[in-house]
Automatic annotation (TrEMBL), chain A:
It comes from Catellatospora bangladeshensis. Residues 300-327 are annotated as: Disordered. It holds the Pfam family PD40. This is TolB-like translocation protein signal peptide. InterPro entries: 6-blade_b-propeller_TolB-like (IPR011042), WD40 (IPR011659).
Automatic annotation (TrEMBL), chain B:
GO terms for molecular function: transmembrane transporter activity. CDD domains: MFS_MJ1317_like. Residues 29-412 form the Major facilitator superfamily (MFS) profile domain. This is MFS transporter. It comes from Catellatospora bangladeshensis. GO terms for cellular component: plasma membrane. Residues 1-21, 413-436 are annotated as: Disordered. It comes from the Bacteria. Pfam families: MFS_1 (PF07690). The keyword Amino-acid biosynthesis does not apply. The keyword Transmembrane helix applies. SUPFAM superfamilies: MFS general substrate transporter. Signal peptide: none annotated. It is a multi-pass membrane protein.
Amino acid sequence: MSGLSTRGRITIAAAVTVALAAAGIGYVQLARTRAAADTVPAASTELTLDSGPGLLVVSGERLAVVSRTDPSGARQISGVACARAYAAAGTAVCIQPDTAWSYQLVVLDRQLRPTRSFAIPGLPNRARVSPTGRMIAWTTFVGGDSYSTSGFSTRTGILDTHTGTQVTTLEDFAITHDGKPYRNTDVNYWGVTFTTDDNTFYATMATAGVRHLIRGDLAAKTVHTITTNVECPSLSPDGTRIAFKQAVDSDPQRGWRLSVMDLATHAVTHLAETRSVDDQAAWLDDHTIAYTLRAPDGEPSIWTAPADGTGTATPLLPHAESPAALH
Amino acid sequence: MYLSTVTSPPAAGTPPRSGRRGLRAVSANVFALGTVSLITDVSSEMVTAVLPLYLVLGLQLSPLAYGAIDGVYTGATALLRLVGGYVADRTRRRKAVAGLGYTLSALAKPLLLAAGSSLTAIGLVIAADRAGKGLRAAPRDAMITLSTPPEQLGRAFGVHRAMDGVGAFLGPLAALGVLAAAAQSFDAVFVVSFCVAALGVTVLVLFVRDRRESVPATGRVSVREAAALLRVAPVRRLVLAACLLGLATIGDGFVYLLLQRREELSTVWFPLLAVGTSLGYLLLAAPLGVLADRIGRLPVLLGGYAALAAAYLLLFGPVSGTPLLVLTLALHGVFYAATDGVLMALAGPVLPDRLRTTGIALIQTGQALAYLVSSILFGLAWQVWGPETASRVAALAVVAAIAVTLLLLRRPPAGSTAPPGPAPRPEPAARTESAR
């Protein structure tokens, strides 16, 4: 480049700047047009959580309800934007975008009216409501939170909608591991599921590179480890089994196998789904498990599989995620 | 804002933030290098700001699995940085090696889109981006030293780091603007980021001069000669001091975490702690660089570490509330502003011209590895003693590192008060100590 005069260099720089700016602006314009074409018209029908034997889902990043008996029929789509949602006994939870960077948790009543909302840190991961509709739990991914100076950690909180009491992180709970007290700064929790007593819960706790299934006591602020390699537990309606994702060869990088564990015997059954499932599954009834699968571009679809490991995985709903049974 | 702003130490080769004074007084080449860094940092911080959103929300990947990929690269990029430095010296093509680094990082942006949701592909692209950062830092800093009279190195590095910091500060804002204009489409951010990075490479190619004539072509640099660098006492002492100081520096993440815990700060605001530090760095890098030229680089460098020790002590100190936040972040900003560029200004005159890039890469790599070790050690200390004791021990370690550094680098007692000559030799003639 030494052969060029200053003037020549400035001319080239200006031309390149103009070309690059044109390319950038052109692409932004293209993306905007494409997004406008994709937008689902927000048919703000009067949705409720009572809509018969139905399924609450997130469709096109909005809360929607479909019929259990005819899932391919018309989808009722609400105006409520959600990244994750769940519902039980007339209470729904929705993790909603607040700004481009931040999210809030919204508790909704039967008519999908917000009753409570507050900002939560990080990016949405899991959301659950207890079977009675009283307790709400959520998990987010937060950056720079642990001492591992890069990468993510999780943050899991619980809200009691009756008392308004909020536990912003489970990380302060006292841990009993293999019968002994345990302490470590690297502890992470995710994927809470509640029992019907609104005090006992199950969740995943990761520490020292191992992911444990734990049983927690909310009032006592304690957790006990039960077994390992169980992630994102989901308790069956009858309270006897846990659906979960099991890392293949205990290595999450190799994907997860959707499985069910009997809480009495700890016997694990792999379900008919053989593709990797990264979701906290939902029980549609005592025999059927629903879960979200993702296409490589992130596009979700909901599938079901029998809870006893028989049968085959069946597509339930395309372009939808976060299933929750409405009874 | 999440991944790398919060995490990577500026000393590890991606210096963030700072100043404005004395722009006119730096050479055109330093100004051009600063412009390249500014543009490149806008580009890379745009991606850093949206990467977590893209991975977690766009592709719905589990970031815990992603985080696991991360640590492995530090070692690999450390080696690459050394090799890059050596190749730059051997071929006397510092600009070409730096250009390769900038180009690699620019190409990583569209490749990230092409990687789709394959964790392996994403890991490889991120590795390529890091490799680019590692490759370019040492030749860039070497070019700054070779285009600046030794007595103005502090100012030159200060201005460069300030421009770099402005870019890092603007990046997330640019990403926000693109997201708003492109209906929240992540791919638009990557494409625009690539265009910005390509502009950075263009400015480098057109306006940065390698000044190859300033280094006489007296035979090729050999591996033996490069290895012999560590046998030169002042160089050895400087590398040792850089490693020691790196060992005493705990990760930013820890500092922010402790602040957040103590003040029960809403984690929603957590990323802003890093922004506060950046702002301090950005504003102070140039003035402190100028100060370093006036009163000596060693006092400013050690002053920066004293500020760091004070910040560690404040974490469990008497002050609380907003004053604690402001004071700690300000001290943290002073630390970066007084140490990152100043260390390079200190190193420049000690390293022989023909091995300048290798030497700088050696110091930066040593510090990056020391920093990794210190993060692990502090994690253990936290676990065993609890955060309060651990942070006080860390402050003590900083004080000890300051004392040892002072012993290692203070000016030799007898009469050599003159500043080091413009082109120190590889022979022990370079014994003039660096502190000036």
